[in-house]
């Protein structure tokens, strides 16, 4: 049974929390030659990361949900995709900031560029943490600012309002995850070829992909972060020493005097 949250509607309007311009720009890039090559690499990485993850429910959310699948080889029993735009071939309509699922039910969440295109990336991570079961896994896919793709964002330096997506470094995302109680298992980068110059430059720079993959560089156009939700267990702390009782045997309390007095024997004179 689908673990939906009845307090949150599954039917949303065409206006979503994600930037429509950012969604289109992201999908257009993945339709290019460099994007397709990077996508194949990302799918292989996510498949490897999720190979040993078991459970009942897995969720794909973000820009690429419904367009491409990252869980084709996943062992999780039931898989759902949450779409951002009406009319897409997804399981449920909703937004990453308000996932329509109950607390602690998802075993795996894959979010593709949900942080990049969202107006509230912190809320996206909080929602992922909310729906994940203890020891559940999340895999985040995003654009790397320290890459050829990130250099292209410099054209918005004097006009930040025209920027379609906001790129966050892996260090920053890992810090956000740490605050929410996640343990980062692995961080991988993919897609080292230039994103400008068309197919001509891309075909002559494929050696950068081989170099980056061989030396596991963190300058790829896309990062993949695998994290696990950790829940701290409270341990009861016992007193270090035995506390002596206030009253000793053979003593009673005199309420009128407000002090402790010794009990006299019955045969006292």
TrEMBL record:
It comes from Thiothrix caldifontis. The lineage of its organism: Bacteria, Pseudomonadati, Pseudomonadota, Gammaproteobacteria, Thiotrichales. This is Methyltransferase domain-containing protein. GO terms for molecular function: S-adenosylmethionine-dependent methyltransferase activity. GO terms for biological process: methylation. It holds the Pfam family Methyltransf_11. Keywords: Methyltransferase, Transferase. Residues 92-140 form the Methyltransferase type domain. The keyword Nucleotidyltransferase does not apply.
């Amino acid at each position: 049974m689908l673990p939906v949250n009845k307090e949150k509607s599954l039917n949303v309007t065409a206006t979503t929390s994600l930037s429509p311009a950012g969604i289109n720009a992201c999908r257009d890039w993945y339709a290019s030659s460099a994007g397709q090559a990077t996508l194949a690499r990302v799918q292989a990485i996510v498949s490897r990361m999720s190979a040993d993850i078991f459970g009942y429910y897995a969720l794909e959310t973000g820009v690429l949900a419904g367009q491409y699948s990252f869980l084709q080889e996943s062992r999780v029993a039931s898989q759902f995709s949450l779409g951002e735009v009406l009319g897409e071939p997804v399981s449920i309509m909703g937004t990453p900031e308000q996932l329509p699922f109950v607390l602690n039910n998802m075993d795996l969440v894959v979010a593709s560029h949900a942080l990049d295109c969202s107006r509230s990336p912190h809320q996206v991570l909080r929602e992922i943490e909310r729906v994940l079961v203890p020891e559940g896994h999340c895999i985040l896919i995003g654009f790397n600012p320290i890459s050829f793709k990130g250099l292209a964002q410099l054209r918005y330096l004097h006009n930040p309002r025209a920027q379609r997506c906001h790129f966050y470094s892996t260090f920053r995302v890992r810090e956000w995850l740490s605050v929410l109680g996640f343990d980062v298992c692995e961080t991988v980068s993919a897609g080292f070829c230039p994103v400008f110059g068309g197919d001509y430059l891309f075909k002559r720079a494929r050696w950068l992909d081989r170099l980056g993959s061989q030396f596991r560089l963190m300058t790829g156009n896309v990062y993949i972060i695998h994290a696990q939700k950790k829940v701290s267990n409270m341990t009861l702390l016992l007193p270090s020493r035995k506390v002596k009782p206030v009253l000793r045997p053979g003593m009673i309390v005199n309420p009128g005097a407000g002090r402790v007095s010794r009990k006299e024997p019955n045969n006292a004179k």
